[in-house]
């Protein structure tokens, strides 16, 4: 069953990326906030259902205890939602998926951990791909068109968003090393069996609270929020949360094999964007994106061993 849940997670998250992009429009000023609101709502519902249907005893103080990690994950997703208003999904997603490599580097820098030479090779491959994508983006027609359309400042900010996502998400994963370790975790009322569930509930409830605050902010600003016009964003939120649910079961089986398969999310996203959104990149961009994906898959396989 773990293989079924692994493949389901990969597909669900790939489809979520497709709907995130499909529901994002450059002219929709608060579009990224609307996505945050809907994701927060769906995650909040899932957290409440989990609390009602499981025998876990949850201490609300964990919302505060886990806040540093939740903040990183939520902020990284907000950066992603903002960026895909202006950047092709097939360009942004591979860059965002380098978060795992950045987390490994943070462990080396701050924890003094040693990583195998092959892992360094995988990180190097990703770095070559990122530098190549950045260079071709800077010199390419797409960037010229984007600058003319958005202005130089906004074009630079938009292209920086996938990198911001990768770094902030990596920081969240780095902090999770401490929060998901029974010896160092500040979470309250946890056991070896429920620590990940407590952390996930805390994250989802925090996202729900952030979504509510953003909704009130938009109401204060007089911005309309018509749910009937947010079908793509809602579909993305549902797929995101459903993928998070199946992810738990996927990793509870054979995590060493599941991790490399899950890293194929960016491949699924790339294919879906090409097929359904008709996104077209230059041959050089596809080449460097392929290099990034190769590095991601190599790193996933090595970490799973």
Protein topology:
Layout: H1 2-22, H2 31-53, H3 62-65, H4 67-83, H5 89-96, H6 99-111, H7 117-139, H8 141-150, H9 152-179, H10 195-221, H11 231-252, H12 255-262, H13 265-276, H14 283-304
Low-confidence stretches: none
Rg, Å, rounded: 19 Å
Strand content: under 5%
> What is the approximate shape?
globular
Helix residue percentage: over 70%
Order of helices and strands: HHHHHHHHHHHHHH
How far is it from the N-terminal to the C-terminal residue, by CA? 21 Å
The secondary-structure class comes to mainly alpha
For the residues shown, what is the average pLDDT? Answer: 90
Counted by DSSP, the helix tally is 14
Number of DSSP E strands: 0
Keywords:
305 residues, 78% helix, mainly alpha
TL;DR of this structure?
This protein is an all-alpha fold. Helices cover 78% and strands 0% of the residues.
Tell me what the structure shows.
The protein is mainly alpha-helical. It has one domain (2-304). Helices cover 78% and strands 0% of the residues. It is built from 14 helices and no strands. It has helices at 2-22, 31-53, 62-65, 67-83, 89-96, 99-111, 117-139, 141-150, 152-179, 195-221, 231-252, 255-262, 265-276, 283-304. Helix 2 crosses helix 11 and helix 12 packs antiparallel against helix 14. It is globular, with a radius of gyration of 19 Å. The model has no long low-confidence stretch (mean pLDDT 90).
């Amino acid at each position: 069953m773990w293989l079924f849940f692994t493949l389901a997670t990969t597909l669900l998250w790939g489809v979520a990326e497709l709907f995130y992009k499909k529901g994002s429009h450059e002219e929709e000023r608060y579009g990224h906030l609307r996505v945050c609101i809907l994701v927060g709502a769906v995650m909040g519902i899932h957290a409440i259902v989990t609390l009602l249907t499981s025998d876990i005893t949850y201490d609300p103080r964990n919302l505060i205890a886990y806040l540093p990690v939740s903040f990183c994950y939520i902020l990284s997703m907000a950066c992603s939602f903002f960026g895909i208003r202006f950047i092709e999904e097939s360009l942004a997603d591979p860059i965002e998926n380098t978060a795992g490599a950045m987390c490994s580097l943070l462990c080396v820098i701050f924890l003094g951990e040693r990583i195998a030479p092959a892992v360094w090779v995988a990180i190097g491959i990703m770095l070559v791909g990122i530098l190549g994508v950045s260079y071709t983006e800077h010199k390419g027609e797409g960037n010229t068109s984007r600058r003319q359309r958005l202005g130089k400042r906004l074009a630079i900010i938009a292209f920086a968003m996938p990198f911001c996502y990768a770094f902030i998400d990596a920081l969240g994963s780095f902090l999770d090393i401490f929060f998901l370790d029974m010896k160092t975790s500040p979470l309250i009322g946890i056991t070896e069996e429920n620590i990940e569930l407590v952390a996930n509930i805390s994250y989802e409830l925090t996202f729900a609270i952030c979504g509510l605050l953003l909704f009130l902010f938009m109401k204060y600003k007089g911005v309309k929020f018509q749910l009937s016009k947010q079908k793509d964003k809602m579909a993305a939120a549902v797929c995101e949360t459903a993928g998070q649910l199946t992810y738990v079961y996927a990793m509870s089986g054979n995590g060493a094999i599941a991790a490399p398969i899950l890293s194929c999310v960016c491949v699924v996203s790339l294919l879906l964007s090409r097929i359904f959104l008709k996104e077209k990149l230059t041959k050089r961009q596809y080449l460097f994106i392929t290099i990034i994906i190769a590095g991601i898959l190599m790193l996933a396989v090595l970490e799973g061993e």
